[in-house]
């Protein structure tokens, strides 16, 4: 079991899975905390939280360390095959719901409550089985690419929401936002959306309108929260202002938006595209970590702890 604790609660004998800071000293390192100097290095870092592996620790990490149940990146007693079955069941249910939901949106009808049960379903499944998350992303097929991408991003965002202490309500919004973030692609011509080769400059310009199109479409429905609208509109922005549609900089990009960006890019990199192989999770995380001017490194680290 992996636990997320404040660094002030660290003790020698604990096994470190990740130190949540951008310091290269701790990048990708997993180790048994054995010396005072290692402990002091972590305490002196910019990290607030540390992920520890209870099973690999030499000391009793103790449940009192965990302030809330959702701080656990669980999974304990379920057998691998049971976990796989649960995930596959959740995937088929959510995929069907997404398909129906998108059809309704296309025809002008929309009921966000349809998404809530699917969101709760995937949330429960993923909390129980975070380490098979990567398999969910591998269930993607080319024909259902957007649907399954949305599902995968939703699942990853749900996991990061829990790990980031955002609370049940906000995390539930993240789950729904993940399902809806690429809604604007429904309004992009198929000739561009499904083109197998590289896009021309003009086609790329059209494709880049999808965040704004999705935002404007969802905005027509008052039951869609401001947070979901914000995530849909800004999920392709970058910390240094080089993203789109508005070129916002870091100080205008909220944690939930950054969470969506990191999950979206991670899923894109680890998926097969007509022009590239799927990257491994490690390759994708390293590529993103090395681009701290674009992505929030704290979240890249947190994502790594979620899926590895
Ligand atoms: Fe997108």
TrEMBL record:
<dbReference type="Pfam" id="PF11871">
    <property type="entry name" value="DUF3391"/>
</dbReference>
<dbReference type="Pfam" id="PF13487">
    <property type="entry name" value="HD_5"/>
</dbReference>
<protein>
    <submittedName>
        <fullName>HD domain-containing protein</fullName>
    </submittedName>
</protein>
<feature type="domain" description="HD-GYP">
    <location>
        <begin position="122"/>
        <end position="308"/>
    </location>
</feature>
<dbReference type="InterPro" id="IPR037522">
    <property type="entry name" value="HD_GYP_dom"/>
</dbReference>
<dbReference type="InterPro" id="IPR003607">
    <property type="entry name" value="HD/PDEase_dom"/>
</dbReference>
<dbReference type="GO" id="GO:0008081">
    <property type="term" value="F:phosphoric diester hydrolase activity"/>
</dbReference>
<dbReference type="InterPro" id="IPR021812">
    <property type="entry name" value="DUF3391"/>
</dbReference>
């Amino acid at each position: 079991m992996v636990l997320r604790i404040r660094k002030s609660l660290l003790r020698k004998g604990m096994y470190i899975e990740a130190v949540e800071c951008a310091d290269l000293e701790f990048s990708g390192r997993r180790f048994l905390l054995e010396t005072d100097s290692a402990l002091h290095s972590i305490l002196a870092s910019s990290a607030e939280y540390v992920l520890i592996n209870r099973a690999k620790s030499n000391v009793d990490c103790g449940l009192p360390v965990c302030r809330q149940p959702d701080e656990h990146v669980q999974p304990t007693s379920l057998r691998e095959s049971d976990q796989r079955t649960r995930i596959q069941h959740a995937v088929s249910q959510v995929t069907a719901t997404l398909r129906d939901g998108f059809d309704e949106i296309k025809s002008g009808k929309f009921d966000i409550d349809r998404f809530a049960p699917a969101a709760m379903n995937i949330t429960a499944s993923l909390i129980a089985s975070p380490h098979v998350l990567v398999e969910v992303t591998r269930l993607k097929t080319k024909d259902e690419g957007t649907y399954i991408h949305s599902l995968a991003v939703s699942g990853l965002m749900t996991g990061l929401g829990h790990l980031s202490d955002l609370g049940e309500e906000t995390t539930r919004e993240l789950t729904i936002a993940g399902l809806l973030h690429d809604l604007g692609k429904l309004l992009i011509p198929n000739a561009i959306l499904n083109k197998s080769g590289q896009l021309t400059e003009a086609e790329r310009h059209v494709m880049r309108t999808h965040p704004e199109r999705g935002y404007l479409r969802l905005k027509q429905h008052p039951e869609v929260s401001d947070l979901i609208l914000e995530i849909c509109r800004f999920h392709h922005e970058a910390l240094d202002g080089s993203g789109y549609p508005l070129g916002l900089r870091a100080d205008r990009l909220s944690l939930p938006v950054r969470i969506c960006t990191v999950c979206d890019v991670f899923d894109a990199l680890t998926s097969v595209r007509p022009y590239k192989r799927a990257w491994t999770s490690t390759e994708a995380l390293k590529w993103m970590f090395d681009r701290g001017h674009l992505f929030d490194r704290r979240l890249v680290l947190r994502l790594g702890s979620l899926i590895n």
